[in-house]
Amino acid sequence: EIYYNHTLYNQTPIASTNYDRLEASAKLLLPAPAYDYAAGGAGLEKTVASNRAAFDKWQIAPRVMRPVQPRRDLSITLFNRTLPAPIVMAPVGVQTLFHSTGERATSKVFGELGLPYTLSTASSTGFSDVAASNGAGNPRWYQLYWPSDDDLTRSYLETAKANGYEVLVVTVDTWDLGWRTRDLDRGFFPFIEGVGVQIGLEDPVAHEKLGFNPLASNATMEQKQMAALYHTITTSRGISPVWENLWKLREVWGDSPILLKGVQSAEDAKLASQWGLNGVIVSNHGGRQIDGAIASLDALTSIVEAVNGSMPVGFDGGIRSGADIFKALALGADFVQLGRPILWGLAHEGEKGVRHVLKSLLAELEITVGLAGCSDLGQVNKDLVTANI
Length: 389
Ligand code: FNR
Prior knowledge:
By secondary structure, this protein is of the alpha/beta class. It has one domain (19-387): TIM Barrel. Helix content is 42%, strand content 12%. It contains 16 helices and 12 strands. An 8-stranded parallel β-sheet has the order 4-11-10-9-8-7-6-5. A two-stranded antiparallel sheet has the order 1-12. Strands 2-3 form a two-stranded antiparallel ribbon. Helix 15 crosses helix 16. The radius of gyration is 20 Å and the shape is globular. It binds ligand FNR.
C-alpha cells in the first residue's frame, strides 16, 4: 500500500520532510569528501543551480470543485509493468560512501515499494547482492557505462540479465568525466580509491584480461587498484559511444527495453527513436558534466514534443519535492528519477532514511495531485501548470 497523505503518513519522520533541511542534516552526518562528491557538479555549478531554478519558472494552477476522492491513483504502466507510482531510482554509483549499507539499503526500499531500482555500473555492490536485497520479482533496471571493450560489455549485460535486470539504461553523457571542481580540489576520485567498482572487480572477463582475481583473498592492494583502474578505463573514459554501435547492445539485450540517459536535445531524442531505442531519459547528470548546460526541465518540453508519444520519456535533475514531480509530469514526463534526495536519506541510518524520503515524496505527490483537482495521473497535464516568466 503506497498511498499516503498527511493522515496516512505512517512513520515518525527520522529526518526533515523538507529537502533543504534534509540535505543540511546529511551534510553533518557525512565525511566532507562524500558530501561534496554528491552535492557538487561541474565547474561553477551553474547547471546544478539551473536545474533547480527551472522548477521555479513553472507554477501549479490548481482546479477546484472536482470530484476528487481521498486516495489518488499514482499508478502508471511502463514496459509491461504496472507501477504504483512514476518514480524510479536514478543510477547512482558508490553508494557505500553515504552509508555502509549503500545499494543494499536503497534497492531494498525501492523493492518494498514496488518502484524500479536502477543499478549503476559504478556500484559499490554487485549484481547478485543488489538483486537479493531488492527482492525477487521486483522491477530492476541496469545502467551501463558502456565499456570500450566489447567482451566486458557482453559479460556485464549477461550478468545483469541473469540477475533479473529487465531494462537497460545506457548513460551517454559521461563517456568522459566532467570538470568536477570540488573533487579536483580535494583530489577525491572514489573510483580510483577502490570504492564503487564492485561490478568490474567481480567480472570474470575482467579477471581474464587482468590475469588475476582482485577479490581473491591473496590479492594485493596494488592488484586491487589496478583492477579498479582497469574498470575505470574500460568503462569508456574518453571514447564517446556512437549510434552505429548500438546493435552490439541489442545483440545481447534482445528485445528487452533499452533507454538512453543523458539526452538534452530534441534532435537526439528523434534519433534515439529512429535507431530503435525504447525510451529516453532527459538528464544532464544532475549538472555534473557540462557547466552551463541547459536546465533539465527546460530541455524536457521540446523533447516531449519531438517524441510525440512514440516512446516513454523519463526525466531527472533537480527534483526535490512532490510538487516538483507534479510539474515534471504535467510537462510531459512519463516517469521521474531521483538522485541526491535518496542519498541524503541514505545518510540518515541507511534504509530508514531512504524509506522516509521516498514515502515523504510519494505522500506530497499524492496530496498535490488531489489538491490540483486530479484523481489520477492521466488528469495531470500542461493545463495545470503556468509559465512564470
Ligand atoms: C550520479 N549520477 C549517475 N548517473 C549515471 O548514469 N550513473 C552513475 O553512476 C551516476 N552516479 C552518480 C553519483 C552521484 C553521487 C550523483 C549525485 C549522481 C546521475 C544521476 O543518475 C541523476 O542523473 C542525477 O543525480 C539527477 O539529478 P538529482 O536528482 O541528483 O538532482
